[in-house]
Amino acid sequence: MFLADPATHGGAAVKRIDTHAAVIFLAGPRAxxxxxxxxxxxxxxxxxxxxxxxxxxxxxxxxPFAPQIYERVVPITRTAxxxxxxGGDGSxxxxxxxxxxxxxxxxxxxxxxxxxxxxxLADALGRAVAQAHADAAAVNPSRWIxxxxxxxxxxxxxxxxxxxxxxxxEVEALAxxxxxxxxxxxxxxxxRGRRGLIARIHGDLxxxxxxxxEGRPVLFDAVEFSDLxxxxxxxxxxxxxxxxxxxxxxxxxxxxxxxxxxxxxxxxEDLDALAALPLFLSMRAAIRAxxxxxxxxxxxxxxxxxxxxxxxQYFDCACRCIVSARPAxxxxxxxxxxxxxxxxxxLAPDLDPAPGAVVLRSDIERKALFGKQEQEKLGADxxxxxxxxxxxxxxxxxxxxVLAAGHSAIVDAVFSRPEERELMERSAAVLxxxxxxxxxxxxLATRVARVGTREPxxxxxxxxxxxxxxxxxxxxxSWPRVDASGTPEETLARxxxxxxxx
Length: 502
What we know:
Layout: E1 14-18, E2 22-27, E3 30-35, E4 39-40, E5 43-44, H1 48-62, E6 70-78, E7 84-86, E8 92-100, H2 108-113, H3 119-134, H4 141-160, H5 168-194, E9 198-200, E10 210-213, E11 216-219, E12 231-233, H6 234-247, H7 251-265, H8 268-272, H9 277-294, H10 304-322, E13 329-334, H11 340-347, E14 358-361, H12 362-369, H13 385-404, E15 409-412, H14 418-430, E16 435-441, H15 444-453, H16 463-469, E17 481-483, H17 488-500
Parallel strand pairs: 13-15, 13-16, 14-15, 16-17
Antiparallel strand pairs: 1-2, 2-3, 3-8, 4-5, 6-7, 6-8, 9-12, 10-11
Helix pairs in contact: 3-7, 4-5, 4-9, 6-7, 6-9, 9-10, 11-17, 12-13, 13-14, 15-16
């Protein structure tokens, strides 16, 4: 084949990658992707003109995500001598998307397998998705809302074809739960569509379609072949990443992605939409299970057990995600330097439902109130009692919205005043959810040392603030006190014991 010949690429070795709908040739610093002449229920590449249009759509849709990857659409033409040429003047016989080649091991699925998705990368991933969604164009939502229900039926049909892998009673249980969740959140989806939050999305946002370039996660290979598949609620798009991370056992990373995304978008509506997240996660996992099962028809015999196990794992993930969980409200208080935020980040992933609790931090809410970036310093006027009261009102409102959506929340604040602690207690009582509250303490020297050495952060607390807080009158303190003078691991162990106690 022309693109498989090293001579086409100046002698560079060529690597070929086959997918169900495309063939990709990697040669030197370039990659060329051609569409297969195939027709599926969801795409049609049967003619040369349709394949050209598909290539042009892929370029148009993906360049905003990854301009450093996507170059151009190039024809493969017939020369006068009967040969083939890239970008020649002859008649096109095929079309290709030309791209800059990147290290295949730098995609996030490979990095996840190598244990290289750390907190910093997860945070950057949440920012990248939020930025991509900031530019997403709203679509007519009704077609996608209906399609979401249709997908449930399609999954039942596909799973039913492999009863040995997906027993009928398990398929029916998943379908029943999915339909019930869909009916429950249907009014929410209609409202999300009315607010423009059902949009043209990436559509295939799993870890394999994100690559680390120059230290930053870059989204690529967005769906171009179907406007319907490439449409959806913005949280449905995010849910693919969250599910992929959770299914791989990377719940901490998934929790960081979710919380960074919520902070970056700043949409209170997204807190309400957490009610649909279990359905979205389950649907994404079911899609991967269905696709994995379909691939069994093409794998070689020695690869079949692993392929079956993968499909089954995604099915199990779909079943786990759809199960409702009782949310909890956790409040972590303590003077500056006691390690509240470190403890909060450690606790959040383990609170149900997946991928863990929404973190609500007073430092971040205060910065948002003044329109500042997290690491911008605020003046003394931002720390008056009236301003602090507004911050706590916002924290309480957001916590109630998260809890009402069936999700857990952790509130991270100093909580130095009795009325601030009482506000959390009332918020939990209103929604009849348990409140798990802790108050961290450490000696002044420890607190001063910590605030003086921490990395850039949303907190404005310094040694002077820590010393001033030493004179605070906390009033009656009924919250269990936790010794936080040791390592973060020791504090986590002590806090975990108290949170698990009746």
